[in-house]
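Hey,
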Amino acid sequence: MNTNYDIVVLGAGNAGLIAALKSSKEGKKVLLIDNNSIPGGIATSTIKGQFEFENSLHKLTGMGNDDNKGIVRKIFDEFEINDKIEWIKLTEGYKLIKIGNPKEEYIIPLGLDEFIKKMEEYEPNSKDKLSEFFELSKEIYAAMNYIYEIKEIDYDYLKKTYPNFVNIASYPLDTILKKLKLPTLLEQIITSYWINFGTSSMNLNSAHYISEFYKFIAFGAVIPKNRSFEISSTIEKLIRDSGADIWFNEEIIKINIENNQVKSVLTKSGKTIYTNHLICNTSLNNICGKLIDYNLIPKNMIKLTNTRKLGLRVFNLSLGLNKTANEIGIKNYMYYIYNSLDSNIELENIKKIDNYTMIITCLNVINPEASKEGTCILNATLYYSGDCYDKIFNDTNYLKLEEKIQNKIIDEIENALEINIKEFIEEFNFNTPISYSKYNNANDGCIYGYLESNNDSILSRILNKNEESLINGLKICGSTSYYGHSFESTYKNGYEVAIDTLKDIEKGE
């Protein structure tokens, strides 16, 4: 069976879905292929008994508000996705808990005024310093949005309009916070958001981090009432309605290249699909290691693949409890659990098997209808470094360690939140790196994309993204592309890659 398409999209994760939708809406003949039976990659749900567990989403930023629409909201508005989904707005940021002795707890509220007011309770007379920090943050956020949305950057305009951004953009976060002379506790609280990036404040690019932290505090975040699969399935329907084809339970096993140009792809079922434009929602490792003949890969592409390291991996434990959140004593939607408030120390901690750095969420706190009356859903995501995983796990001990980790996560939840949950567990679901590999073909189960550093930050990747498009007609999107991981990043990345592909077609390339 031979078929011709203007654009083929590999992978129906967030980025692949948006790329296929945008391409098809612009009148192109599009094929979306995924080896799973449903869309979304890890942006989906698992049903166990009477509970529906969310596999990945803690929050979605990038929506903004009516006066300041975020990038994701603009994309969703274009396709009328927002009209089809019921959103629930987070009422607070998260509760930060440092376990150990002494135990420390801090509420991170949403809203700039609310944040400053709460921080003054922890660090009196800090209002002026925090106001200075947020004034800088506002400029950094605006500058980053300019870079995101303007394809041809005017550097003279950037220097004139956002001088502070230009001055700090190349520095790591630690350096900038030290220059601002914030009290140590406020530094630690502000940098506590680091787990969303997967690297410490010593390595994080200051402009990227400050922009994202400001956006979260200033504009908040949302979750879809019916979990992330509601978004994925909505986009899938829109793709089909636009006339595109979707093949689930199918897999691309080879990309055929001639004279450094995409010519066709071969599927596992033996179909040859002819196309000059392929959008891959997968990593460079998969493309170079599995899909393209090695001697046809540009040397710089191989070099880039070998240079970058994979980011954090996670275990995810979802619990269906036969008591309400209030009865158990769960008061907040989201908790960040650390052993140390110093992100550089904590990043070293997650290389050890006895580390339990976690984000915990309870859907019922902000959505009482997340499960049946008299029950609640608790979700814990445990983070660790890839090196730790490689050194500890093997074929013979995997199942025993998996059970040990499940029990330890439950113990740490009870310890951190000072609650009892063991006797109320009715159902559970456990995702490991192997589970995530099956969802999205991620290398070693890594869902955090490539590890960020100040020298290889999202900012530098965006500014040099054209240097990574080394095979004509081949573009990469998703968590391992230039915007990095997170729901917001992958949505806007898929949209942008689709636009670039459409421009290539228009130019006859």
